[in-house]
TrEMBL record:
PANTHER family: PROTEIN TRANSLOCASE SUBUNIT SECE
GO MF terms, alphabetically ordered: protein transmembrane transporter activity
Swiss-Prot/TrEMBL keywords: Cell membrane, Membrane, Protein transport, Translocation, Transmembrane, Transmembrane helix, Transport
GO biological process, one term: protein targeting
Subcellular location: Membrane
InterPro entries: SecE_bac, SecE_sf, Translocase_SecE/Sec61-g
Domain of life the protein comes from: Bacteria
Function summary: Essential subunit of the Sec protein translocation channel SecYEG. Clamps together the 2 halves of SecY. May contact the channel plug during translocation.
Keyword Transmembrane helix: yes
Protein known as: Protein translocase subunit SecE
NCBIfam families linked to this entry: PRK05740.2-4, PRK05740.2-5, secE_bact
Organism field: Marinobacter daqiaonensis
Family under the similarity heading: Belongs to the SecE/SEC61-gamma family.
Keyword Nucleus carried by entry: no
Length: 122
């Protein structure tokens, strides 16, 4: 059985998600309603609404967990060892050559099968 604190938190989170949904709906409807206005003003309005909606969403339990996930992902990205430029060029050349060889093999097989089928059919 849920405690009252958890139940009130989940209801409050549902209310926050409802506010996020309403903000998004206002952005969509407002963008359509003000379609005659400058694109700059509409984009600025949408960005402002998106920031407010993101702020409200981050106040929920799932939003906080998502923010934690992003922080942890950022830490993991810093641990990645990126290839040097020569390694990158060498790997890219290997991949391009391999793709070309496989493409030629497939083209040859397709041509051979097409020739055989055409000879068989007449």
């Amino acid at each position: 059985m849920e405690s009252k604190a958890q139940q009130s938190t989940s209801r409050l989170d549902m209310l926050k998600w409802l506010v996020v949904f309403i903000l998004i709906a206002v952005g969509v409807v407002g963008n359509q309603y003000f379609s005659g206005e400058s694109v700059l003003y509409r984009v600025l309005g949408l960005v402002a609404l998106a920031l407010v909606a993101a702020f409200v969403a981050l106040q929920t339990d799932r939003g906080r967990r998502f923010a934690t996930l992003l922080k942890e992902a950022r830490v993991e990205i810093r641990k990645v060892v990126w290839p040097t430029r020569p390694e990158l060029i060498q790997t890219t050349v290997i991949v391009v050559v391999f793709v070309l060889v496989v493409a030629l093999i497939l083209w040859g097989m397709d041509s051979l099968i097409g020739f055989l089928v055409q000879g068989f059919i007449g």
